[in-house]
Task: inverse folding
């Protein structure tokens, strides 16, 4: 039987422990995981495309539980990238009911573009179910401690990129 390649896509602005939890869950199921750092046309990210690829790759490569996982930047349609990589599956995390509508929309559009690639949804560990990249940036900018929610490399990148604002 041929090996099953799965893509875990996202904007990863920045990657959080919640994303890593989903990547680890996917790794237990599929033969090879490609983390795709993609472009969401509706977002204006804090980190540039190249920075997000570099940071996500650095985080993945420094995590021993993610050995063998590769990280690639994707410009253009995710479904075309998946086809090029011969991936059969795209994995997304589903944190709460509020994610569902958006995910359903993307799933139907991806299916319309290519029927052969399945979307699969995994639930994160409950302690990460409220996490998002935006909330991490907001907590950080307002002086809060984000060390339980992102890897050290991300904190270093945030310090380098913006530093902390003085919070009154
Ligand atoms: N843990 C923590 N946070 C999570 C999470 C998890 N398990 N799962 C999702 N999130 C958060 C993210 O941090 C992000 O938060 P934010 O909105 O505050 O930034 C939000 O939920 C969802 O973002 P993310 O998972 O990073 O991906 P996205 O929804 O921005 O990604 C793409 C969408 C990139 C997959 C999609 O735009 C895409 O496929 N782009 C390529 C172009 C394309 O093919 N477009 C057509 C799509 S039909």
Result:
């Amino acid at each position: 039987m041929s090996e099953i390649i799965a893509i875990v896509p996202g904007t990863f602005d920045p990657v959080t422990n919640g994303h890593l939890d989903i990547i680890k869950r996917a790794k237990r199921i599929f033969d090879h995981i490609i983390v795709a750092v993609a472009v969401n046309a509706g977002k204006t990210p804090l980190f540039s495309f190249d920075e997000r690829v570099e940071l996500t790759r650095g985080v993945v490569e420094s995590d021993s539980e993610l050995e063998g996982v590769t990280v690639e930047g994707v410009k253009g349609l995710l479904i075309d990238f998946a086809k090029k990589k011969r991936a059969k599956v795209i994995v997304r995390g589903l944190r709460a009911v509020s994610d569902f509508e958006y995910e359903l929309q993307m799933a139907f559009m991806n299916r319309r573009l290519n029927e052969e690639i399945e979307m699969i949804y995994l639930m994160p560990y409950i302690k990460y179910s409220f996490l998002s990249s935006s909330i991490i940036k907001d907590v950080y900018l307002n002086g809060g401690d984000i060390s339980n929610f992102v890897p050290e490399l991300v904190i270093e990148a945030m310090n380098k990129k913006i530093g902390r604002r003085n919070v009154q």
Remarks:
- The chain is about 40% helix and 15% strand.
- The beta strands are 5-10, 32-37, 70-73, 89-93, 118-122.
- The mean pLDDT is 95.
